[in-house]
Design goal:
heterodimer, A: alpha+beta, 7-stranded mixed β-sheet, 13 helices, 11 strands, about 60% helix, elongated, B: mainly alpha, two-stranded antiparallel sheet, about 5% strand, flat
Chain lengths: ~400, ~170
Amino acid sequence: MCHLLRLSISILLVSSSIFLSVDSIAHNRSQSHSNWIISDHSIEAIFTAKSLEVTRLQTGINQSLDIIFADHLEKTVSIKNDGQACALRNNVLSIPAKQGYMQAKLIFDCSLKTESPLINITSFFDFASSHVHYAHVITDSLQSQQYLFTEVQTQHQVAHDNKESGSILSGINQYIYIGIDHIIGGADHIVFLLALLLLVRRFKDLIWLITGFTVGHSITLAITTIGWVIPDLHIVEATIGFSIALVAVDNIAALTGYHRHLALFSIIGLLAMAATNIILGIGFSSLSMLGLVTLTVAYLLMRSDNEAGIGVRPVMAIGFGLVHGFGFASALTEIGIPTDLLWASLLGFNIGIELGQLLIISGLWLIILGFKRTKYVSHSRLVIDITSASLCGLGLYWFVGRSYGII
Amino acid sequence: MISENKLSPNYRSIALLFIGSLIGISSLFLVPNKLLGYDQGAVAQVNSAVIRKDEYERAIALFRGDKRGPITDADLNLVLEKLIKEELLVQAALRSDSPRKDLKIRQRVLQTLLTSIQTRSAAEISDPSQSAGEDLKFYLNQLRDNADIQRLKKAPGNILVSSEID
């Protein structure tokens, strides 16, 4: 076997393994949230976390997850009011939650009137250092405030009602941070942007692509958050994987000109998957699979026609943006948005997503430019080949794995 | 520096794409069973349910009490097989909706849940009589929040009578 092919396969294996290792942070992000109600002398909190998240706490002892969750919260959540610790009333009570989630209620009694209590949350940080906890606090005067807890910021002093921190501006600020955190922590969005950027040669094209993607995800983010549509997150996440694979295949098709051949192989793969779904009664519905087949054919064949293919990518970026927007919205709806801060939260979160996206794209763009200019990589085509192949593998891993609930 | 050779760049691109796809798909086989991953104490999986280790050990202990002599591997298999059969039957019963249709089972299920909530409340709080009711109310409200309830017929005061139905 020639040296080049051997080298390529080695690099491919390495890059695949690197990308596969980031699966833990791709949408399966470690996060939890809580809703707090602060009254005169008592503070009530309801904590919510995914059941999968709670399995991190298992130590092999045969305990049910709700007990583990309640015990963990009892040890890791505390309140101080005016310097004095508030006592936890009774034990933490597990309460019913929607499927796949766990909920628990905590009530703290404070001897002094609660003015601006100090909330301390260290839950999950010992088990997942990247864990993020969102706390939504409502005070007696029905003002709502949001606080973000991370491994380095485990305490927050609840702002006094008269302070400005409960304002719309504060809400926007909090959600900007959440938006940035979501896109930077979501490997699948980063990987998609990388796939999209690989073939971009001019800055103008880059701007069009980003604009298309932004328009797309802003639409679905808004309509999902407002509640006009309720997407099936399972399908959305799998389709995000599919979008990565499709763009990666398109990169190779653009380099080789084998659009028709690759479209044919893609269709065979999708039809095989559709047949499996029908026979075993799992995965996407036949209609959804038909939609993916149509999209693949239309996209790859349209790109094969140079005349029509030139303007396709930014338009397709809008379409892919629509899918990713549903994914972004899931992060926001999962946390729960206060109705009085709906628009502020939406605006802040979208700004955060855009800022994070710009940060990622700038970084990727610089890396790609650097690669193109360095004398050590004279074959930039080889780099695109290997990266596209890795991204295609990763996209398929997410698409198939999420379709069948394997990952 | 990487050197070019005789392999056509187009074929190389396609070959790499197929290798990448193959690695991506085959990596899924390396992912451990999700359900068992959830529950490290599971000894068997029956459809979507798991038989937990503590349950299995309890069954073995009962078996040991009845048997003279040491427990063999065949005995262990027998106990596990019995639990699997039991789980299969329970699943069949649940599929037939027995807990909802059979009044006796329905009452028993209801009573078990209420007792569980009240017992937990009594164990956890100093004033059980008051807070047990509060917890039940809270529990019900949570269930209601997560449920899709639609009143499809007339209000309770206007229940249809047989003459109206006719």
